Structure formats: structure tokens, C-alpha cells
Amino acid sequence: MKILRTILWVLAAFGFLIFAIYNWQPVELTLWQNLVLETKVPVLTMLAFIAGFVPMWAVHRSVVWSQNRRIRALETSLKNNALARQRDTQGPVIPAVDSPVEKHGTKPVETAEPFSPTDYGTDGSGK
Questions:
Q1: Backbone phi, then psi, for 40, in 5-degree steps?
Q2: Residue partners of 25: CB distance under 8 A and separation at least 6
Q3: How do beta strands 35-40 and 26-32 pair?
Q4: How far apart are CA 79 and CA 1, in angstroms?
Q5: Dihedral sign of CA atoms 114, 118, 120, 126 in order
Q6: 44 closest CA partner among 27, 61, 59
Q7: Pseudo-torsion of CA 67, 73, 79, 83, nearest 10°?
Q8: Sign of torsion, CA 99 102 106 111?
Q9: pTM of this prediction?
Q10: CA 92 from chain center: how many Å?
Q11: Position with higher pLDDT, 92 vs 37
Q12: Does the pLDDT value for residue 16 go beyond 60?
């Protein structure tokens, strides 16, 4: 599709070049009562083309931008919904509580109460 668009732009540029060669004549354009613009016909034609093309191009780009934003938002919403459904269908995950000591057939070691400062023979003052 891009090659077709490129071919059309090249043909349009070639057509404009031929038009400019055969119509290179000065033209007086009266803007206000005492303000006159003297220019060539191809320059005036190019300015008229740009004046009509740029606003429509800007509208097109803004529509494409807003549609891309909507598509990204919808895709994100769809992905979030799919992930939520996947979590719901898997059910709750309960972690296994296997200690390595019980796997080898020995009993776990009982731990004693933590030491207090009086067990070290001090009164807790650190002396």
C-alpha cells in the first residue's frame, strides 16, 4: 500500500512540475485596497494546495491518534479481564507446608525460650 501512495505522490509532483514549467508567469494578487502581492502562478498554486491540505491532514492525524488511544485502552482492558478470569478458574493456591526435617523421617528440634539478661548473670544494665 505504501508503494501505491508513493507512486501517486511522485505522479502528482511530476504533474505539478510540468504545470509550473508551462505557467511560469507573474500574477498580481490584490490582498487589500493598497496591498498587492506579485508572485508566480505555481507559487500561488502551491500555497493554495498547502492551505487546503494541512488542516485536513491535521484532522486526519488527530482522529488516528484518538483511535489508537481507544484501541490501546480496549486491549489493556481485555488483557486485564482475561488475567482475572484465568486467576478465577485456577482456584485458590494453597502453599504446601512441608519442612525438610519431616521429609527425612526425623522429628523437628524443639527450640528453647530465648535467653533473658538474667541468664548471663547480669542485671540487664550491660555491666
A1: -90, 155
A2: 40, 41
A3: antiparallel
A4: 31
A5: positive
A6: 27
A7: -170
A8: positive
A9: 0.56
A10: 34
A11: 37
A12: yes
Write out the three cell numbers for 108: 523437628
> Helices 41-90 and 2-22: crossing angle, nearest 10°?
170
User: Which residue's C-alpha cell is 485502552?
Assistant: 73
The angle formed by the CA atoms of residues 66, 12 and 42, to the nearest 5 degrees, is 105
One DSSP character per residue, 92-103 reads --------HHHH
Task: For residue 123, give the DSSP letter.
Answer: -
Predicted pLDDT of residue 35:
93
Q: Residue 80 is placed in which grid cell?
A: 486485564
Alpha-carbon distances, residue 36 vs 14, 30, 32, 51, 67 (angstroms) = 30, 4, 7, 19, 44
